[in-house]
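Comment thread on ticket #2218

A.B. wrote:
> Attaching the input chain for the structure job we discussed in standup.
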Amino acid sequence: MGVDELYYAWNVAHLNSAGILHYPTLGARYVSEQAQTPIAVIPPTRVTFIATSYFWRKIFGTGSIAALRAVACLGSVFTLLLSVLLIYRARGETWALGFAALMSFAPMQIQAAQRAYIDGFFTLIATATLWLLWENLKKPDHRFLPWYYGGSLALLVLTKENAAFVLTGIAAILVFHRWLKVGQLTRSTVIATLAGPAMGVLLLTVVIGGPSILIRTFDLNISKAYDTAYVVQNGDGPWFRYILDLIEMSPLTTLLAIAGLVQFRIQDSLGRFFAAFFLGSYLIMANVKYGMSLRYAEIWAAPLCWFALLQIVSLAKFARHRRYLLIPVIIALLCLIDLRQYDLYFVQNGVYDPSPREMLQHLNILK
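C.D. wrote:
> Ran it. Output below, let me know if you need it in another format.
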């Protein structure tokens, strides 16, 4: 059991004893204890994950860790389903089938379903937000879609502070919308993009116990991160750190995704949509000192699998009439390689949080 899991479990257990209405006490206790703790610990601002796990425990009578892992597992499963639904609605069932295969075998997605990580659950909210933004752009006259989209943005803020990365990617989509040509950007979509996160911050302020508690929570969490040895050793690096980590975790899929990102077809509106999100969020994520982790990169799982699939189809064109046989063979090969990578890191060696040093050791690059 990892350190993060222990703190999540403590929060769920506290709510189980005190009741969900006493959630603000988590904020006050965090501020009091974090000030005396030399390392950064999980803040209670991750409301949706903790609260959902609390309700799971109440309904099904499980322990706190079991509830957290069940919610995390469902997060990964529904991330797969939502992302496949997005591809299906954008490009049809054939493309969705190939994408589903790649997404199903993504090592970090499998791992997120096995542990009490928030990252798989957060990726679900991020994927739902992207899907709803896509639908808003494609159906500008729909009355309720902006409300759903704004609600998902509020949930994003209530789930994890990494919402800032997703919002940056969304901002890139909206800023470059005229050139992306992925639909019609309406005033209601813009308003929802602004109002959703604002509502999330307001709700978070109320739930956590007030503005002073919220500000102090983030201030302590950030300042203590700079004093945490593990974060200092593993949370920094050059701007291409994430690219190296992704290659170490999923080598061929990542390389194909990079190639697909560089030369995706101009007529592929979904590719343009994903490219703006990926590049916009990457620009921020790759420049956060002591704030890098491969687990954070799970929000790119769907875009990277899509770019890899585009590149596979592009390469298979050289086979002409045999391309329909070659494409599933390549996809199957990538799935087997990714499954092997998952087995190497998480089954054989029991990796909890895949850091660059640890991955290089298991690849026999570092001895």
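A.B. wrote:
> Thanks. Noting for the ticket: The chain has 19 helices and no strands.
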